[in-house]
Amino acid sequence: MKIGDFDLQSDGVFVIAELSANHNGSLQTALETIKAAYEIGANAVKLQTYRADTMTLNCSKDDFIIKGGTLWDGKSLYELYQEAYTPWEWHSELFEYARTLGIDIFSTPFDKSAVDFLEQFEPNAYKIASFEITDYELIRYTASKGRPMIISTGVATLEEIEDVIKICHEEHNHDIVLLKCTSAYPAPLEEANLVMIQDLAKRFHVTAGFSDHTLGITAPIAAVALGAKVIEKHFILDKSIGGADADFSLEKKEFAQMIKGVRDTEKLLGRVDYSLDAKKQHARRFARTLYVAKDIKKGDILTEKNIRSVRPGYGMHPKHLKEILGKIAKRDLEFGTPLHSEDIL
User: Fold this and answer.
1) In the chain, where do the E strands start and end?
2) For FRET with 88, which of 121, 256, 275, 314 sits at 20 to 30 Å CA-CA?
């Protein structure tokens, strides 16, 4: 599966810097954030495309007031989204700037009108947010555009994940990434359940990844070790600018450290390969082999006293020791000489 020119099977882990509300209302900040994401090696920047009135109702009834120990307690949903949204009139410049730099850019649409709007930019993927996984019509409409679907599963039931996979397939869209996600902001480490990444890939026969809301960089790196092919993390230039998502976002230095950790983990994981490359062959000079441990005269019997398995690795394989014991030396063999088959009668 590819996102643009990036092959998720052969090119490594696809790292997404989530801009979200971290422009804090400034187009210039948004542009500088995209540049910073490019400079530290992120593969993509992701926007969110909605308006407050496409997300919720402008209503102050209790149902619409945020509570429960979140960062936004006391605000209405409408107030939060009005504060956090990325103006649609910015999108053209943001897409153009990212592409000029050479970093991928796409967005999360939150309703059909956002999909229609984003189509003009021909994004390489669409992201479905955790809380929109129940909006089957949005998922169907987005999948129908034929672009890779990256879907967060934070609040989804097993049945809902099965449903959205089926919906995508019904729209002939099989390019699906499911992201393990804990929909808490910030998310406690003990609720990350990263083992789900492997299960998502195996159970649904899709590419799996991780959308991270924990603090720090440990969780994304651990996720890569468990098979995540996509990592999404909120990115901010400077937390001091504030904003709805600032508290659980990474600044440039820390995000760069996360990317380095991801790339180092990729190197550590490597691939299944039992062959001996040149380096391994060279290192085998320190492996044990059979050596003459005591001067041997032609015609002497080979014994455990005059033949031993020792380092270095220039003699016969030690697996032959038992079969050569009791045999006759074909020539004089000096102490410290590697034993070879041609030395034995």
Assistant:
1) 2-3, 6-7, 14-18, 44-49, 104-109, 126-128, 149-152, 176-181, 207-212, 230-234, 289-292, 307-310
2) 256
Structure tokens at 270: 């490597």
Domain CATH for 187: 3.20.20.70
Do 103 and 213 fall into the same domain? Answer: yes
- Nearest to residue 20, comparing CAs of 222, 211, 268, 291? 211
H or E element: which one contains 114?
helix 112-119
pLDDT tens sequence across 101-140? 999 999 999 999 999 999 999 999 999 999 999 999 999 9
Q: How far apart are CA 345 and CA 341, in angstroms?
A: 8
- Same domain flag for 265 and 302: no
The two structure tokens encoding residue 43: 């593969």
Q: d(Cα 88, Cα 23) in Å, to the nearest integer?
A: 13
pLDDT tens by residue, 261-320: 999 999 999 989 999 999 999 999 999 999 999 999 999 999 999 999 999 999 999 999
The neighbour count for residue 57, using CB atoms within 10 Å, is 13
- One domain for residues 137 and 231: yes
Give residue 99's domain range.
10-50+85-269
- State the Cα–Cα distance between residues 328 and 10, nearest whole angstrom: 54
